[in-house]
Amino acid sequence: MIGPEVYAETLLGFLEPVRAFLDDPSVSEIMINGPSTVFIERRGKLELTHARFANKEAVLCVLRNAAQFVGKHVDELHPVLEARLPDGSRLQAVIPPAAPDGPYVSIRRFSKDSFSLARLVDLGTLSQDAHDTLDALVGAKLNVMIAGGTGSGKTSLLNAFTHFIPKDERIAVIEDSKEVQVQHPHVVQLEARPADSHGRGAVSIRDLFRATLRMRPDRIVIGEIRGGEALDIIQAMVSGHGGCLGTLHATYPRDTLTRLETMALMSDVELPLQAMRLQIASGVNVIVQVSRLSDGSRKVTHITEVAGFDVNSGRYEIHDLFARGYHGKDENGRIRSELVATGYVPSFVSQLAEHGKELPAAVYDAARAKEKR
After folding, report:
1. Domains along the chain?
2. What is the pTM of this model?
3. Tell me, what DSSP letter sits at residue 17?
């Protein structure tokens, strides 16, 4: 049996053309578009580099070793690879014949240090009042979905959220590929896996989620909701499993709910659409929307309550607690913006009080100012 240290050394050898970027904490993504073109993302912006691989076979050697590390296959019959490197970086690749001019490889890197929400305040990702609000929401075991586009910072925010979970709670983390870094004493970390070349041994997110429900979790954290497991998660939320956290791809808070609908419909459970919508509205308490702005910065743009579903209008009732306002650009071309309370007081204030939590004064100050207008 080859140990992980040997795999790591072998992979680093094959990755020598981009080794400097793997060691650079300011680089968040490495994109290999065939052997002769390598881009990186640094501080939210793409840069073309001078890095080159000798030929296509050199890139394929990287992918074969990465596949072996996670027990997968990559070849003409299996041209798509999703894997992780020994340092935790996520690797996605497509090779010929599915990518005639490839191989195409994207390596998403994650900070070795799990950001706290306080650190995200310093970076301007969210305001202090929004930080205090999120502290209260997570502490009171509300179900929170983090939504955003690719590279918007969903996983970093999810990592930060786990700092607010009390240390005496048991957390179950379920992922396709291990990315969530939970700084917590009691964590059950589970990872899905695909079938082998003979179609055997697959373990899905849904399989892991169902198993988790019988393992006495205080919190369930889903790295990314992608398919039919959405229905299982929603039904868990409405059946007493509070404090669920998860991420998914969506552009705006209302889109998040329709995305959940679409993914829930991928399950093998026949459920009337209206019943599903009512369950989504009851299960999901809050949506935290994140976005990568045009200047490359990553920001929380909305903190939104899901207040219910109006059967007559067929629309979800959502209300922004915080929304980001934009004020042009500064002299360095950076977007000037501010995440502020909207003046809406959410319906779950009593649930916060039950857990000894309260919203910051700014929420109520904005509400009083709104009444006077």
Report:
1. 4-108 (3.30.450.90), 117-372 (3.40.50.300)
2. 0.85
3. G
